[in-house]
């Protein structure tokens, strides 16, 4: 694994490839709550089974420090070098970088090799579980091997290439996402009914976020309890901090309206999450509402 042995003694190692970073929610459906404008420096992490000469460890440490800081919730491939190990077998070495504040495990993922003009030079599916658990905020060097059958050209650049994740539209079925408090408090038959509702509904359009009414109930103190499904049709998790809502009855009259502050309520990609909003009596504008048919919506979504 001594990939730096061909260097002259006075030659500093350098990153010959470019960086490709993607959102962790796009690849893993995982996010952390790290402050979004914070820069993440990743620490070098060598796989436990790699036995490296000291010069390679020093070189990887140096190159890792040369990498651009990542943003929160990113996974990145940072190109180190590209070499023909033997005739017809090309070794692409890159850092696999994780800016999440927790360790991750990757699965089989398709990677593409592109040149500086963005042209695809090769494509191959790799079993990234072989990297093992990649610690929080770390960079793990790894070798990716391409053969002629994986490449679309025999002329590979030595510099300014990029190894990139090939992201595919999610094929996951739209599913129920329960907050931990709901998971603990709901009876199993109630969970089953919610799952049945979600499974029988037409999923929201790609990228769409909307609300669907589940239950409306007036409390003894005059408050209105409105339970909705928050439906996330996008391929990314959404974090809700504030929602303006209006409720209409069967006559199309506004029954209640107000704004709700939420404690960073997260709805995962391609899921629906039930949530109950309580309108205090002061927010109710129509007392004798007909709830034989009703809907709730953000005013801009009507």
From TrEMBL:
It comes from the Bacteria. InterPro entries: Sec_acc_SLAP, SLAP_dom. Residues 1-19 have a biased composition (Basic and acidic residues). Residues 1-39 are annotated as: Disordered. This is Accessory Sec system S-layer assembly protein. It comes from Halalkalibacter nanhaiisediminis.
């Amino acid at each position: 694994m001594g990939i730096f042995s061909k260097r002259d003694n006075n030659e500093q190692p350098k990153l010959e490839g470019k960086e490709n970073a993607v959102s962790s929610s796009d690849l893993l459906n995982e996010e952390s709550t790290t402050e979004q404008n914070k820069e993440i420096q990743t620490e070098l992490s060598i796989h436990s089974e790699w036995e490296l000469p000291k010069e390679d460890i020093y070189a990887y440490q140096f190159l890792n420090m040369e990498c651009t800081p990542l943003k929160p919730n990113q996974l990145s491939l940072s190109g180190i070098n590209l070499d023909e190990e033997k005739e017809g077998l090309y070794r692409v070495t890159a850092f696999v970088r994780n800016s999440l504040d927790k360790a991750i495990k990757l699965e089989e993922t398709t990677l593409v090799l592109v040149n500086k003009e963005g042209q695809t030079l090769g494509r191959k599916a790799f079993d990234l579980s072989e990297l093992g658990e990649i610690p929080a905020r770390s960079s793990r060097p790894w070798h990716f091997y391409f053969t002629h059958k994986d490449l679309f050209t025999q002329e590979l650049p030595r510099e300014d290439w990029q190894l990139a994740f090939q992201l595919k539209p999610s094929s996951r079925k739209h599913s129920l996402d329960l907050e931990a408090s709901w998971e603990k408090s709901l009876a199993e038959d109630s969970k089953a009914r919610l799952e049945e509702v979600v499974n029988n509904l037409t999923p929201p359009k790609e990228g769409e976020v909307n609300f669907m009414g589940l239950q409306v109930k007036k409390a003894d103190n005059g408050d209105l309890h409105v339970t909705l499904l928050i439906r996330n049709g996008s391929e990314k998790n959404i974090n809700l901090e504030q929602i303006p809502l209006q409720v209409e009855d069967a006559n199309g009259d506004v029954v209640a309206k107000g704004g709700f502050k939420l404690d960073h309520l997260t709805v995962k990609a391609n899921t629906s999450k039930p949530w109950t909003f309580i309108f205090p009596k002061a927010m109710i504008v129509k007392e004798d509402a007909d709830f034989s048919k009703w809907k709730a919506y953000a005013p801009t979504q009507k």
